[in-house]
Prior knowledge:
Blueprint: E1 2-6, E2 9-16, E3 22-27, H1 39-47, E4 50-55, H2 75-88, E5 94-99, H3 101-112, E6 117-123, H4 139-146, H5 157-168, H6 179-192, H7 201-208, E7 224-229, H8 237-246, E8 251-255, H9 268-278
Parallel strand pairs: 3-4, 3-5, 5-6, 6-7, 7-8
Antiparallel strand pairs: 1-2, 2-4
Amino acid sequence: MRTVRVNGIELCAETFGDPADRVILLIAGAATSMDWWAAEFCARLAAAGRFVIRYDHRDTGASTCDEPGRPSYTAQALTDDALGLLDAVGVARAHLAGMSSGGAIAQELAVRHPDRVASLTVMSTTFYAGGPDLPRAVPELSAKFAAAPAPPDWSDRAAVVEHLVADWAPYSGPAGATEAELRELAERVVDRSVSVASSGNHWQVIAEEEGPSEHRLGEISVPALVIHGTADPLFPFPHGRALAAALPGASLLPLREVGHEVPPPSTWDQVIPAILEVTGGEGPAR
């Protein structure tokens, strides 16, 4: 684990495996740190011949944090940071794997910087370019967005952990992360983070964004994989199906009864071979 200077800030990143192997950059969702990509998940990819990079977005984990409620950047900066990180660690072309908003970042990089992207894996994300009439989030999540709970005392570790668990739990599917697993993750996030409260800045900059840029997905020619839970409450499964249809030649991997979440360990025997397959067509990219 190390700190890398990117776009005038410090990003905390961790690598797994041999730098001479094919590079996979894991991009977490909005307001989430590298901790969501389990170390064992990364290690299994590395053991199969991949050099895996996970990192904390700005305002998460051990990366540079702005004051809560006062972000000094736009949503575009989160995309620029991913590209800047590849520059900083000397990677010319990487396989991208992004979850939720991290999937949107991966899509944008594949369109805007095709020379830097060897393959595209997107998880629990949507067809941001528009198109078919896709279903909205389930009513329970819509109600959650409309009446956000009061923030905790950010200096009270136990209260912050409980707040995070309550915030994340509605996104898990019947076969997804358990409450105990979410609590363990929350404790790890709280203990590693410079400022947990600052992660909320992501939602502020995303809300201020004028709208997603035009992702000309039909122009993407690299191998692509769409992983989507059949019980995703935020982007119901038709979102994954529409995205797979929009990406030329993309494979669709449904995860039964999984929600809007990083693939849980129970799915790794499906997910890891699929990622290895889509990332297997190009050699080292140093």
